[in-house]
Specification:
The protein is an alpha+beta fold. It has helices at 8-17, 60-74, 119-136, 153-166, 175-189, 229-240, 249-261, 269-272, 275-295, 308-316; strands at residues 25-30, 38-44, 48-54, 94-95, 101-106, 197-199, 208-211, 214-218, 225-227, 242-243, 246-247. The chain folds into two domains: 9-53, no CATH class; 119-316, Aminoglycoside phosphotransferase (APH), C-terminal lobe (Aminoglycoside 3'-phosphotransferase, Chain: A, domain 2, Alpha-Beta Complex), CATH 3.90.1200. The two termini are 33 Å apart.
Length: 320
């Protein structure tokens, strides 16, 4: 909803939006709950738009390369996707005086869902992800990795060890969390899977839009990359098939029925049987990343309130 008084950041987003949108922007407001980019909604009399500040050292050349690859396919598909706008200088990105990069695209109408989902919704999530995966496998070339270390547990564990050695921020360390990490890390490092497919990379519930009980669109496509289909499924199940803080077996079964209902041979039954272990690995990886950020000087995730990162770590490591 529009706030009574726009913040400085929202007013600035309006000014950025004028570089992309010719219609008068009536107002802007902060949008979503993303961990990385800063996102605003720009409202005109005709349309609503998403305006994003690209944070960090992300290579926008890679983002544009991948966008041109997948947008060609999605134009012919039954799933919608964020269509980027260009500036008056014919660029997908605007670089401001502060060195920040911005992009704008039309908001996709649709509904987001909140937990807990029912079986029908979980079935729809599985079916939609399978359809999305089938489209991505038709890319004429492999996408480049915007986040090359995504789902690379070796990398995240190395960072954790480096932080323990010399990167502490002064935050109180959690002995229980560290003991759990030490006891389980090798088990999860030993889980390997084929990484030659093309995946979404972050197919969590917040990145799915629904309409009439089916998936209308996947959003936040910056993470499209080569990777493991099984990891992508596990990440989606981890986010969607949850009841009372735990993976619900009946909901997961509904999800898998949906995934397998698409006439696809993307994964064998033997590979799908490894899903529970892969879900545990994804949760462990997230817990490790959140805990590392909680005690590190340089953080990847936003600390939304004091103790947020440690809380997320403990939730994903199932220690609360």
């Amino acid at each position: 909803m529009k706030t009574k008084h726009s913040s400085k950041a929202e007013r600035y987003a309006e000014e950025i939006g004028k570089r992309f949108i010719s219609d008068r922007i009536s107002h802007a407001y902060s949008f979503g709950d993303g961990h990385i980019n800063d996102t605003f909604c720009l409202v005109t009399d005709k349309e609503s738009y998403i305006c994003q500040r690209i944070r960090g050292k992300i290579d926008t050349g890679i983002l544009e390369h991948n966008y041109l690859l997948y947008s060609e396919l999605f134009e012919k598909a039954d799933l919608l996707y964020p269509r980027w706008l260009k500036t008056s200088e014919n660029s997908f990105f605007y670089n401001d005086a502060n060195g920040d990069r911005w992009r704008v695209y039309k908001m996709i109408g649709g509904e987001t869902a909140v937990l807990p989902l029912d079986k029908d919704m979980c079935f729809a999530c599985g079916k939609g992800l399978a359809g999305f995966h089938l489209i991505l496998q038709k890319l004429k070339e492999k996408p480049l990795a915007t986040y090359p270390m995504l789902h690379d547990l070796d990398h995240y564990y190395d960072r954790y060890l480096r932080v323990l050695d010399h990167g502490l921020s002064g935050e109180t360390r959690d002995a229980e969390v560290e003991k759990y990490i030490s006891s389980r890390i090798q088990d999860f490092l030993d889980i390997r899977t084929d990484r030659s497919a093309v995946i979404h990379g972050d197919p969590k519930l917040a990145n799915i839009l629904f309409e009439d009980g089916r998936i209308k669109a996947f959003i936040d496509l910056d993470t499209i990359m080569q990777g493991s289909l099984l990891e992508d499924i596990a990440d989606c199940v981890r986010s969607c098939c949850v009841k009372e803080g735990k993976i619900d077996e009946d909901l997961m079964e509904a999800f898998l029925r949906g995934y397998q209902s698409e006439e696809s041979t993307l994964l064998s039954l033997e590979e799908i049987s490894l899903l529970p272990r892969m879900i545990s690995k994804i949760r462990f990886e997230l817990g490790l990343r959140y805990y590392t950020d909680a005690i590190a000087k340089e953080k990847s995730f936003k600390e939304k309130y004091p103790g947020y990162l440690l809380e997320k770590a403990r939730n994903n490591l199932a220690l609360l």
